[in-house]
Design a protein that fits this description.
The chain is mainly beta. The protein has 1 helix and 5 strands; from the N terminus they run E-H-E-E-E-E. Strands 1-3-4-5-2 form a 5-stranded antiparallel sheet, with helices on one face. Strand 4 and strand 5 form a beta hairpin.
């Protein structure tokens, strides 16, 4: 079983913020998944069978991604540190390769 972590940051400026949402911009889930996939560095997954978004990230917000898995299946969990520990941002499963 392979485990690793990466730090990701929501872009400070992005065209998606204009409509998502005016006055309180948040990073769309699809862009968060793109940042997660880029941080893993394995190219595009063939499927994302499971994902749960628990909290939003705003422009410039940072979080830690914890990857767990090997081969075709990789689980991920995005979380940010708080004064009391960690709070979940999103979690899910990425499938890679012919075995997916």
């Amino acid at each position: 079983m392979t485990r690793r972590t990466a730090e990701i940051s929501a872009p400070l400026i992005h065209p998606c913020y204009d409509g998502h949402f005016p006055g309180r911009p948040i990073l769309p889930g699809v862009l968060l998944i793109e940042l997660v996939v880029e941080a893993l560095g394995r190219g595009a997954p063939v499927a994302i069978p499971q994902v749960k978004f628990q909290r939003a990230l705003g422009p410039g917000d940072r979080c830690t991604v914890r990857f767990d898995g090997d081969g075709a299946r990789v689980s991920f969990r995005c979380e940010r540190s708080t004064s009391g520990g960690y709070e979940p941002i999103a979690e899910g499963v990425l499938l890679f390769g012919a075995d997916a």
